[in-house]
Amino acid sequence: MENRVVITGLGIWSSLGTSLGEVTESLREGRSGIGLDPERRELGYISALTGIVKRPELKGALDRRKRLCLPQQGEYAYMATAEAMRNAGMDEAFLAANEVGIIYGNDSSAAPVIEGIDIIRAKRNTAMVGSGNIFQSMNSTVTMNLSVIFNLRGVNLTLSAACASGSHAIGMGYLMIRQGLQERVVCGGAQEVNLYSVGSFDGLGAFSKRESDPAAASRPFDKDRDGLVPSGGAATVILESYDSAVRRGAAILGEVAGYGFSSNGEHISVPNVDGPRRSLLRCLADAGMQPEEIPYVNAHATSTPLGDYNEALAIDEVRREQALRRLDQVDDRPRNVDGGSQRNRLLDADDGARIHRPEHQFRAGRRSHLEAQHPRPQGGPRLRPLSVKLVRIRRNQLDPHYQEMQINPTQTMTQQELIEKINTVLADEFEVEQEVITPDAPLLETLDLDSLDLVDVVVLVDKNFGVTLTGPDFKELKTFQDFYDLIISRTNGN
Hints:
Layout: E1 5-13, H1 20-29, E2 34-36, H2 38-42, E3 49-51, H3 64-68, H4 72-88, H5 92-97, E4 101-106, H6 110-123, H7 133-137, H8 141-149, E5 156-159, H9 165-178, E6 184-191, H10 199-203, E7 233-241, H11 242-247, E8 254-256, H12 274-287, H13 305-320, H14 341-350, H15 358-373, H16 402-405, H17 415-430, H18 443-447, H19 451-465, H20 480-489
Parallel strand pairs: 4-5, 4-6
Antiparallel strand pairs: 1-7, 1-8, 2-3, 6-7
């Protein structure tokens, strides 16, 4: 028996807003999240256009260790998922008592990789990278971090499929729940928006150059379109079996009725018509629906001349094929994509009587039953693909201006002033009250330091005091006084 799959939670963090309410309002009022990033111009970008995404403030929401392990897109994903969890009614107690999985799309984590390598090259010391970099730099960073933050103990899977990553994550979650392998799965997609992740696209001329009017730069399917606008953010969907949602009284926001997929298989970057056409046909067949039943199509809509053209042809071909056959009987022969009479003749030749699968009728009946219990809201906004924004990336101590900014504060400080500085730095970094930091207090226990934290101490001391510590330096450190003495001995503070 196949399970029905419903949506019980939604969350988003994007250039159009940092919540469902803000994004809905932006869409209704026609706001744009696109702006100009002067740093891109400084780096030689052809186009400085990008989405402007607000950076979340996570201090106070997450502890230090969890914050350190999150890259930019991971922060967005956390905020979107936290909102989706609240909407779904899944609190800490529920997550502790029930198995919930996560399948999330993440295509890259470029900034932590580049920043880590830059630090190693400059410092000639791998410890200076810091403890969080390894967890930020992995493509699985979103799922591994969110599973720890939210105590998720089900499937843990990262999907990397370029722009389709988030959609495939929802599709895979849908299949797992439908087949009974999971009851609840957190699904979604996140994208970093820093200067490193999409630089090569700019070099290929894929970005819009309409800098005089940033708000109107993204023009999918418009005759004057000239390219896409890079951005990022995150969106989360909580998928759940229908029976599970009903048992716990969750509000049902929608149902995933079908999923289809394909690969172009012709060119690594040039889009074609047959690939998206086949994915649409498979999705319709899986859902037991006809093209005329679909009121809205959320297209890829890259705003590139060829991309939009071929995608529009694919959608039109599916729309015009009024007689869908069984999926395994659908003619998958390559189509003529020039828009001429030959393509039209092929479409006309394919027209015929629809062959219904019995299960299609069954699913249509189940869908009608669901709609009767949970009617679809009327008059909602017509959505367009969201463009998301860029923030100034968080830099480690290897900021391009780091060497200029770094000064040794210990050169003119007394020993007492240096000790006070050490206490302030440690209290702020490890989030403890300064009152607990006393000369005789045990260093490791007071700050609750583990082996990962000791790596961060190395980075912290180098950044603030210009002192490079190594592993052997920590062997004799028992108290804060030992730590003071070590730093003082390596500076001019004495």
